[in-house]
Amino acid sequence: MKRPWWEDAVFYQIYPRSFCDSTGNGIGDLDGIRAHLDHLSWLGVDALWLSPFYPSPMADFGYDVSDYCGVDPLFGTLEDFDRLLVDAHARNLRVIVDWVPNHTSDAHPWFLQSRSSRHNPKRDWYWWRDDRSDDEGGFGAPGSAGRRPNNWLAAFPGVGKSDFPPAWTWDQETGQWYLHLFLDHQPDLNCHHPEVQSAMAGVLRFWLDRGADGFRVDVVHAIGKDPRLADLPDDLAAIPMCALNDDPSTHPILARLRQLLDGCQPPARMMVGETVLPSVAQIVAYYGSPDGKELDLAFNFHPLRSPWSARSWTRRIDEAEELIGASGAWPTWVLSNHDTSRHRTRYGGSEARARAAAVMLLTLRGTPFLYAGEELGLEDAVVAPDRRVDPAWPGRDGCRAPLPWDAGPGHGWAGGPDAWLPWPPEADSGRTVVEEMDDPDSTLNLYRSLLRARRGSQALRAGSFTWAATDGDVLAYRRKQGRDVRFVAVNFSDSPSSLDLPPGPWEVELSSARAAADSRWDGPSPSGRIEVGPDEAVILRPARAAQLDRGR
Asked: Which of 131, 225, 288, 507 could link 293 by a cystine bridge, Cβ 3.0 to 4.6 Å?
């Protein structure tokens, strides 16, 4: 049976505002992406995920959508999107777009109609509720804090605040509260409503008909809600509801969307869901079942939050293998994204650790997602208080800093040195795409070598996963598919470590310590052991002599 393309693919996330500006306004755009498709082909990725580019007031930088079937003028036009898609497909790059079904902008025409009157036909497209009654524990004047419909909290504390705000905002004109799991500018859709489901299916068809290869579904686990909207228990009441909502009603909604994608011509369209939930077991449910397939892939962010520790990563890999893999689903792996500090920054600024983590990311069993700029070894930008723009606190601006393409004053952006956010560290001292391309041992060339190694090995793309015994702060595993075998070792300690190899002979295919050919061994290991340096990861393959012997 042929494997679906997304199981073999390496995805590359592009945050359009930060990729490349082609117009001179300091904000990245679709033509800026299109101008660098050759670079992405050179790098070796297979698919692009474009974060939102829809028309939006930009209260949450595009995740507050005011038109699901358009392109914000900041990023270009629908025709620009079409050209980007055609050019990407010509390079065998698939394109998936971000879809935000849980909420719209409060400027979306649907919400403007819903808000206009209690009797508007679109009133029930959103979650509106009366004041809590005295019998329900309400107190105070109408529309006061003591009358909110429940105790749910929204994400995103305001700037300078540490407490999460309530998930309800009072509408004076119609005398009711509306629900928003994020900003008050992002009212939640009632995805149970048949007309909302029909409208959203129309949105998906719009992008599928234009040729999109699939969707990344924003906060997918939150779209179904228990209509009772009951209070959370006291021990959970301080946690934003967007991190807890896991209602079973989401699954039939997803199953119907799955049927829509499966009926597409040409087929092979996919969905990957943002599932930010407390446990991996909860995430697994969003893949669906043999009787009702839902997502093709679901993000497991628990490893992304792990410290640089063999023990922690062993636990996270075991969870993925035992819960996701054992269910028949296919895991995802991610180190960085637009919502989280870059992994090099999280690992104490160590480029060695970031490089070793890249080897691990691209050799585990599952689909890897890269975030634009991690292939350069970027750290978060330092953003002064007067440059902060993110509504979350302490903010995600640092990981969204613009991508430096060259060493010029504007780093390859048409607008010169003044981009929408400060440049990341080292952008003026060699950490740009052009300069790293010229350095055979750069992090960029390491990623390219890793992607080439992965593409050339059935074992790394599709093979089984087996742990190898190790000592200390080292983990090692074997990937195997038929006769193709790879052995991977990752040293999380700050001192060298020696470990036994399986029966060999083996040779080093790649080391995180250098992107060029590894020269420590001239041929196969003579001793059946290998020394892995501090914060180093290596990929080993059977020595060429052994491969020739098997081929005779």
From this structure: 288
Query: Is 458 a member of any domain?
Result: no
Q: How many domains does the chain have?
A: 3
Q: Which residues of 256-272 are buried (b: 16+ CB within 10 A; e: fewer)?
A: ebbebbeebeeeebbbb
Angle in degrees, CA 518, 520, 523, rounded to 5? 85
For 199, counting Cβ atoms within 10 Å of its Cβ (0-12 exposed, 13-18 middle, 19+ buried), the class is middle
Q: Are 539 and 514 in contact (CB under 8 A)?
A: no
For residue 185, what are its two tokens? Answer: 């500018």
Q: Which of 80, 274, 379, 507 is catalytic?
A: 274
Same domain, 323 and 373: yes
Residue range 309-324, pLDDT digits in tens = 999 999 999 999 999 9
274 is catalytic: yes
Token pair listed for 486: 């790879």
Catalytic, out of 46, 106, 213, 218: 218
Residues 212 and 288 in one domain: yes
Residue for token digits 């993000």?
Answer: 299
215 in a structural domain: yes
> Which residues form the domain of 294?
5-102+191-451
SS3 letters across 325-375: HHHCCCCEEECCECCECCHHHHCCCCHHHHHHHHHHHCCCCCEEEEECCHH
Do 299 and 334 contact (CB within 8 A), yes or no? yes
Looking at residue 157, which CATH number applies to its domain? 3.90.400.10
Shared domain for 202 and 128, answered yes or no, is: no
- If one counts every other C-beta atom within 10 angstroms of the C-beta of residue 395, the result is 16
Residue 456 maps to a domain: no
Instruction: Report yes or no: 401 and 28 within 8 Å, Cβ to Cβ.
Output: no
Q: How far are the Cα atoms of 101, 148, 171, 175, 423 from residue 144, in angstroms, in the given order?
A: 29, 7, 11, 11, 43
Q: Is residue 546 part of a domain?
A: yes
Domain boundary among 179, 205, 225: 179
Same domain for 363 and 484, yes or no, is no
- Distances in whole angstroms, Cα of residue 64 to Cα of each of 58, 106, 148, 188, 305: 6, 8, 23, 10, 26
CATH number (domain holding residue 364):
3.20.20.80
Q: pLDDT by residue (tens digit) across 38-73? A: 999 999 999 999 999 999 999 999 999 999 999 999
Alpha-carbon gap, residue 155 to 392, rounded angstroms: 8
Chain centroid, CA 231 distance in Å: 30
- What order do you get walking across the sheet with 484-491 strand by strand? 464-468, 474-481, 484-491, 537-542, 506-511
Asked if 293 contacts 258 with a C-beta cutoff of 8 angstroms, the reply is yes
Cα–Cα distance for residue pair 383/396, rounded to 1 Å: 10
Q: Which of 84, 78, 6 is nearest to 47 (CA)?
A: 6
Q: What is the DSSP letter of 189?
A: B
Contact at 8 Å (CB) between 511 and 549? no
